[in-house]
Design a protein that fits this description.
mainly beta; seven-stranded mixed sheet; four-stranded antiparallel sheet
Length: about 120
C-alpha cells in the first residue's frame, strides 16, 4: 500500500488543521492506521491509531481531547482532525499502515509509511 499524507501548514496557537492520509494500491480496510510525529531534535512519537473496526481510536496523552482520528474506508483515507493546537504540536506528521490485529503504538510495528507533512503552530 502507498500512503500520501497532506493537510499540514502554518497555524496560530488554538487553531485547527485536518490531516489526510490517502492510500493507493490496497484497501485501507485491511490495515490498522497510525499517525506519528517527529519534532526537531526529538524521536518520532505515536500520536493516534485506529484499526479496522473504526469505532475505537487510541491517542497519546498529549493530544487526547484535542485530536480526533477517523477513517473512511470507502474513500481509502484516514483523517486526523487537530484542534486547539499548541506550539508543542509543531512537527512533521507521518501516517503509517500496519497489518497488526490491534492498534500498534510503536513505529517498528508499521510496515508502510507516507512521506510526512509539516505542521507548524506559532505562538
Amino acid at each position: 500500500v502507498q500512503l500520501q499524507a497532506s493537510g499540514g501548514g502554518l497555524v496560530q496557537t488554538g487553531g485547527s488543521l485536518r490531516l489526510s492520509c490517502a492510500a493507493s494500491g490496497r484497501a485501507l480496510a485491511n490495515y490498522c492506521m497510525g499517525w506519528f510525529r517527529r519534532a526537531p531534535g526529538k524521536e518520532r512519537e505515536f500520536v493516534a491509531g485506529i484499526c479496522r473496526a473504526a469505532d475505537y481510536a487510541a491517542y497519546a496523552d498529549s493530544v487526547k481531547g484535542r485530536f480526533t482520528l477517523s477513517r473512511d474506508n470507502a474513500k481509502n483515507t484516514v483523517y486526523l482532525q487537530m484542534n486547539s493546537l499548541k506550539p508543542e504540536d509543531t512537527a512533521v506528521y507521518y501516517c503509517a499502515a500496519s497489518l497488526a490485529l490491534w492498534i500498534p503504538m510503536r513505529d517498528v510495528e508499521y510496515g508502510y509509511w507516507g512521506q510526512g507533512t509539516q505542521v507548524t503552530v506559532s505562538s
